[in-house]
Each structure stands twice: as C-alpha cells, then as structure tokens.
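Q: Give me the 3D complex with 5-hydroxymethyl-3,4-dihydroxypiperidine.
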Amino acid sequence: MTKKIQLPADSPMTRKSFLFGVAAASFQIEGGADTRLESIWDRFCAKPDKIADGSDGLVACDHFNRWEADIDLIEQLGVDAYRLSVSWPRVMHKDGTLNSEGADFYVRILDRLAEKNIKAFVTLYHWDLPQHLEDQGGWLNRDTAYKFAEYVDAITKVFGDRVHTYTTLNEPFCSAYLGYGVGVHAPGLSGPDEGRIAAHHLLLGHGLAMEVLSRNSPDTDNGIVFNFSPYHPETDSEADKIAAKAADDLFSQWFIQPVMDGKYPDIIDTMSAAEKPVICDGDMAIISKPIDYIGINYYTREIIRASDTARFEKSEAGPLPRTDIGWEIYSDGLTEVLLDMHNRYKLPPIYITENGAAMKDVITPDGVQDHDRLGYYQNHLMAVHNAIKAGVDIRGYFAWSLMDNFEWAEGYAKRFGIVYVDYETQERTIKASGYAYRDFVGSRTKDVIHHAQVG
Ligand code: IFM
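A: Here is the predicted complex, encoded as structure tokens.
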C-alpha cells in the first residue's frame, strides 16, 4: 500500500523551483449564493433529475464564510500556490458595472494569500455564467464573448498586482460541449452543432480577455486551461483508428489549435456550413494572441470506436481499474498527451492545472484513509516526471482538489478532495493523500547551484 509520494531524486519535481499547488473553483466550494446573482448552475440544479443527488451549490463547502480557515488549511499543506476561480455573478451587476462588495471578497482572499506567500492562480471563468446572460443566449450568443472581456477588464483593474497567474477559461470543452452539445452540464442545452458554436464564442472570449490582460496585467502570466485525454481506438481496425483521430480532432485539437496556430483542425473542411461555427474576419487572430503558459487538466483516457451514425462513439472497453466516478485510471496517458501536444505545437511553458481522482474514502479513528487516491497521485506525478525527462517544459502541478466539493452533475457524492469535508458540520479533515502531498511538497530541496571551485 502506497503511504507516501516519491519521485526519483534527480527529478526536477523534487526541487523547490517546480511549483506545487491545490485547486478549487467558485461554484464548487463557495456557497454564499444569496450574495451574488443567479448563475446558470443555480438554474440547472433547480431542474429535476439534473444532479445525481438532487443537490445544488447554494451552500457547498461554505467557503464564502470559511475562507480564512481554508487559507490556513492551504498553508498547512505547505503548497506554493492556490488555484481559485472568480464567480462572475458575484463580482458584476446585471447592468455590467462592478459589484465592489463581491470583488472585495476576492481581494481579501488575494491579500491573505500574499501574506502567507502563497501564489494566486486566478481563473476568470470556471463555468458559472450569470443566468441573465444565458437568458440572452449565453455562449451561443457572440455578444457573451464581449461581455466576458468587459467583466475581465473590470475585475483585473481591481485585483491590481495581487495575482501571479491568470487563466481566461477553464476547460472550454466542458462549457461548450457538455453545456450546449449534450446538455449534461448547465445550461443543459443540446444540439448537433451547438457545442461548436459555443466553443467558438468561448475561444473568442479567451482572445478578447487576453487583449484586456495584456493591457491591465502585463506582468502576470496569462493563459488558458484545457482538459485533454488520449483517444485510443478500441481495435486496430482502420475504422476505429479514423474514429479515434476524429475524437481527438474534435475534442482536443479543436480547442488548442485555434489558440496555438490560429486555425481549426482540418476536419473542419469535411463539415457542412451548418456544422461549422460562424467565424468572422479577424476572429482567429484574436483567438491566437500569444499566451504565457498553457494549463493542462488530466484525468483519464477515452476508448473510441467507429459508429454507423456519427463520426465516432465512446466505448466502455478500457480494461484498467476505475475511480469512483467510473473513469479508467491510466497514468501513462498523461505523459502521452503532454508529449503529443509538445510535438504538435510550439507550446509555452505548461502547468498541470488539475489532476486527481474521485475515490471512496475510508473514515477510521486514525483519520481519512484514501490510499487509492494516494496511489493515483504517485503514478500521475511519475507520469509528469517522465514527460519532463522526455523534454516537455512543465513548471508546476496542482492537485484537484483542495477539498471535496460540488462535483457538478454528480453532486456531492463523488469526492475529489485531498481534504475531507463533512457537509453536515463543514468540518475539514486532511486525508492520507493530503498528508502525503504535504510531505512530498515539503521535502523538495533548493535547486542545486554549481559554485565555481575556489582555490
Ligand atoms: O471538478 C471538475 C473541475 O471543476 C473541472 N475539471 C474536472 C474536475 C473533476 O471532474
């Protein structure tokens, strides 16, 4: 049974210059819903049968009231950085002006992090769109991209120099395809081409936000976070291989290629006009503004097979053990994805901005034992190490998540935290994985400095 995290002694990840952090997101932990505007997730949760346990984000982990203790917890974990997101409905009024009380909530958090020497990685959009903008069409409406840039302008002026790294969007794949394509996430819409329409507007919003950031915050590292999986064919058949490539093109390259190369993957040329998003003159130049870093979130791989009715379909065939949420545990896939992206594009430095697992926690008198999750971290950190050894420029790693939280359509039953949350009492307990993460992070050494020999 793995009890601690260990990497080869010569790994750059055992040095203090490699950054370690923990991550969370506004809607998943904050609660405090009565002090902000309604978001698309509030509306979605209120609909029957959308959330597995019928729950919502009204209270969540009550981070809105407990943020000071939560920052103490982050300090206890000894990490270098905290990746948080800003709730757009908390910091902006409906008329597009800043809600300074809402903004102050984050300013206090950022100031406290600075006091404790914890770097703030701030995500500007982690899925909680104000509902009043959804009422105007949400991400299917091009205008939302411009509204996003206005919000980014207002909030980044307030934050000033308190932030280390900005992320425009977290996982636009999920916002676009899960929210507007298949409808399993808010706002719960579905349609054959809607995912790609929303994706284009999200990417446009990213580019417009990058322009704002380069004006308002030129000294921070500014970039975007994508979720990637390797897409493996179910069999060696040509049809399955073509299907797997189509899945990769549509799910991964569709998001990164516009940002890195200013174009959608060639598969777009096989689409009818109705299947393509409307791309206005100049859009691709905006979307491909240079970024300072790229964030990659990794959880699992996908097995893909040919389909009679679509370009591909997902198969359940993966033979490896699965997490509590049903995702196959495939750590080599993280190295594979990193190398693949490194070989395809001229990437800026990379952060692994999310990685972690929903696992069943065993609560004992001696604490929360989550050795499966610990094993997951051990193997995936090793996968990051392998990618670095193979030449990929990776600067840091964030565990998802700081604490158990609202896991979107799964509600609270699936726990990703390295800290356990008792939702009855809101008591937080560091799990075995959290202690192992703390110990590993604390064991890093100063970078070796080679001094010239004297005498
Ligand atoms: O909880 C989510 C997070 O909000 C975005 N990335 C994936 C995580 C696990 O599903």
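A quick observation: Residues 25, 28, 171, 297, 354, 400, 407, 416 surround 5-hydroxymethyl-3,4-dihydroxypiperidine (CB under 6 Å).
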